Amino acid sequence: MTAQRTLSREVQLAARPQGAPKDSDFSMVERELGQPGAGEVLVRNLYLSVDPYMRGRMNDVKSYTPPFALNQTMTGGAVGEVIASGADGLSVGDLVLHDQGWRTHALLPAQAARKVEVHSGLSPRMYLGILGMPGLTAYAGLLEVASFKPGDVVFVSGAAGAVGSAVGQIARLKGAREVIGSAGSAAKVAHLTNVLGFDAAFNYKDSSVAKQLRQTAPDGIDVYFDNVGGDHLEAALFAFNPFGRAALCGAISQYNAAQPPSGPRNLALAIGKQLTLRGFIVSSYSHLFPQFTKDVSGWLLSGELHHDETVVEGIENTPEAFMGMLDGQNTGKMVIKL
Amino acid sequence: MTAQRTLSREVQLAARPQGAPKDSDFSMVERELGQPGAGEVLVRNLYLSVDPYMRGRMNDVKSYTPPFALNQTMTGGAVGEVIASGADGLSVGDLVLHDQGWRTHALLPAQAARKVEVHSGLSPRMYLGILGMPGLTAYAGLLEVASFKPGDVVFVSGAAGAVGSAVGQIARLKGAREVIGSAGSAAKVAHLTNVLGFDAAFNYKDSSVAKQLRQTAPDGIDVYFDNVGGDHLEAALFAFNPFGRAALCGAISQYNAAQPPSGPRNLALAIGKQLTLRGFIVSSYSHLFPQFTKDVSGWLLSGELHHDETVVEGIENTPEAFMGMLDGQNTGKMVIKL
Q1: For position A258, what pLDDT does the model report?
Q2: B117 and B43 within one domain
Q3: pLDDT in the model for residue B28
Q4: Whole-number Å distance between alpha carbons of B9 and B69
Q5: Is the Cβ of B34 closer than 8 Å to some Cβ of chain A?
Q6: Is residue B1 part of a domain?
Q7: Is residue B49 a contact partner of residue B335, using CB atoms and an 8 Å limit?
Q8: Residue B257 clears pLDDT 80, i.e. is over it
Q9: What segment(s) does the record annotate as region Disordered (chains A, B) (predicted)?
Q10: Max alpha carbon distance in chain A (Å)?
Q11: What's the mean pLDDT in B21-50?
């Protein structure tokens, strides 16, 4: 057997972004990969994921996951096809989900790859979105973290994003009294109500979030799923009914902030209203995966759950797709097609 | 039977305080009370309670309880002796706990008074403090709201106050790994560690709370019982271990604020650390009263639980006692003896 080499084109982190990331914070490199050893597989990536959490890992600060290393290839969710295998249980042609994204090819231990069976009617890309980490984030955050119950009025920010659009739709399917979303353009707002079945939505850029939420939810809200932080959280605290619950999932409005943001000035409302604010990260809820997969696959196949994607082509456009996602240019899951 | 009249001296709210309350916000009045009708009792108050929550009710804002009315007698916890009764089940000489404080005498429905039996070794005043609302606040907030478990490192602010001193001691008795308190004077700090059995304490006026907490709890905290809000909450967010829990009980640092306070700038830490912040009011936890009474009475009688009181004499000194309590002049429960 000849020592065949595979060329992988990869995106590295060249500099830690100050504020919003820019082109020069990334660099393209080429690397030669060898053949898989025992227990390894060589994967040709088909789809790459860019997600908001990645911005946090670009900073050199202590967090729940270590920061990305400078001058190393970025990592992230990816779906690919096994093109060579040294591992039992994985064969050439198998589709796998793994964490070695931001590159065209990956050589990795088979244990770090999960074989996925793609049901007809579903797309492999869905394992990066509605059937993957963002979908489970929505499912676990709404049902477990925020203790959603039928009859609740649910407000979700970043509602046109991968997580937010799933939150709103799952709330509707699970019997919410009303589902309200905020997003950053008139087109997204129309999409939420016309396509995704939100009862109401508003553009947070139009005027004060607190004012728009009060107008949209005059009887208050019971659950807030927070993807953005900042003035959205403050508005939710004002709008909460007694025993309201917030799932704190992300603070995308603050990820690019160079200065510490101001906190919600009305947090003391949590006392009298007896609110619960709970932060979470999806990896703590992997035990929900079987039920999540069953529920969400069913809704997708029946057409009750709509899955939006914004697809960008080409490994060299991954940084731009990532920066655009942070800026809200996506509707639904942002993926890179190779 | 002659229509005997009883003179009650009472404190009314004369003006809504702007910032810290002052003498002129209160007025003394005298009122003549008649004899109790059917189902009523006439009570001579022995002890009155002043509590932080009363400051909030002096503002004319929507809250979980309606605001105090201007030019009406204030209300609040009181223990008194029945001096005339028109009600079955309550007789002259009985001790009762009720909500018609800030006055020397009260004519009230028997249903609004709870007869208390005072065990030898316990004082009737305790029903305003460690055996009453502040004690239950500590018990419920620590054990239920913050889901305390043995081995937790517990931080409590306002630790020399009625609620805080109970929180720290109950945490110790229930098996905390370490109990840390903050208070506003060197004498209080010494009292916490020397008398109440706190493992460590600091004076929040000495330097930054965040810095002192980091020094006192280098391995982080698991539970924060928040009586004060503001920079204490921010410091706790920095210090929390993963899955930390905050019981939000009060924000005494903000009660006299004329401007909205700044919120915790680091609230987004709640996401990665998977923190739970939960506000509560004690009335939602009255179902715990039997177990609470059993536990706390036992600890008091065995000497394991220390009960501090600051006692001020005379109805006319009630406003001053209240203002002093807001300013931290008390150690333990502030009560007025009539």
Answers
A1: 64
A2: yes
A3: 97
A4: 18
A5: no
A6: no
A7: yes
A8: no
A9: 1-24
A10: 72
A11: 97
CATH code where residue B92 lies: 3.90.180.10
Alpha-carbon separation of residue A74 from A50, A87, A319, B142, B198 (angstroms): 10, 25, 10, 43, 47
B128-156 pLDDT, tens per residue?
999 999 999 999 999 999 999 999 999 99
Nearest to A279 among B265, B275, B281 (CB): B275
Residues A70 and A167 in one domain: no
pLDDT for residue A293 is more than 80: yes
Are B263 and A234 a contacting pair at CB < 8 A?
yes
A267:B264 CB<8 A? yes
- Residue A214 pLDDT > 50: yes
Six token digits for residue A295 = 């529920």
pLDDT digits (tens, 9 = 90+) for A2-52: 568 999 999 999 999 999 999 999 999 999 999 999 999 999 999 999 998
Is A300 inside a domain boundary?
A: no
Q: Where are the alpha helices (DSSP H) in chain A?
A: 53-57, 133-140, 162-173, 186-194, 209-216, 231-239, 252-255, 269-272, 289-302, 318-326
Pairing of strands B178-183, B153-156: parallel
The reply to whether A277 and A138 lie within a common domain is: yes
**A52 and A150 together in one domain:** no
Distance CA B237, CA B315 (A): 41
Residue of B nearest to A262 (CA): B265
- Given this model, what pLDDT does residue A333 score? 92
Do residues A252 and A178 both lie within one domain? yes
Provide the greatest CA pair distance for chain B. 72
Q: Is the pLDDT of residue B330 over 90?
A: no
| Contact call for A229 and B268, based on CB within 8 A | yes
Give A151 to chain B, closest Cα distance, Å: 22
Q: Give the structural domain span for B194.
A: 133-283
Instruction: Report how far residue B87's alpha carbon sits from residue B36's, in angstroms, rounded to the nearest whole number.
Output: 8
Nearest residue, CB atoms, B274 vs list A242, A262, A281? A281
List the beta bridge partners of residue B98: B78
CATH code of A246's domain? 3.40.50.720
- Residue A302 included in any domain: no
Chain B residues with CB inside 8 Å of A249's CB? 271
Pairing of strands A221-226, A240-248: parallel
Q: Which of A93-102, B4-13, B126-135, B325-334 has the lowest mean pLDDT?
A: B325-334
Q: Nearest-5° angle of CA A221, CA A151, CA A210? A: 10
Last residue of a domain, which of B283, B299, B323? B283
Average pLDDT over residues A209-234: 96
How far, in Å, CA of B152 to CA of B140, rounded? 16
Lowest mean pLDDT among A216-225, B111-120, B213-222, B230-239: B111-120
Q: What are phi and psi of A136, to 5 degrees?
A: -65, -35
Instruction: For residue B97, give how far its alpha carbon lies from the nearest alpha carbon of chain A (Å).
Output: 24
**Cα–Cα distance measured from residue B88 to residue A11, given in angstroms and rounded to the nearest whole number:** 83
Q: Specify the pLDDT at position A1.
A: 47
What's the total number of domains in chain B?
Answer: 2
Name the residue facing B251 among A260, A268, A284 (closest C-beta). Answer: A268
In a domain, B94, yes or no: yes
What is chain B's mean pLDDT, rounded? Answer: 94
Helices B289-302, B133-140: axis angle to 10 degrees equals 100
Interchain CB contact of A277 with B (< 8 Å) = yes
**What pLDDT sits at residue B258?**
64
B143 & B276 share domain:
yes
The 8-class DSSP code of residue A128 comes to: G
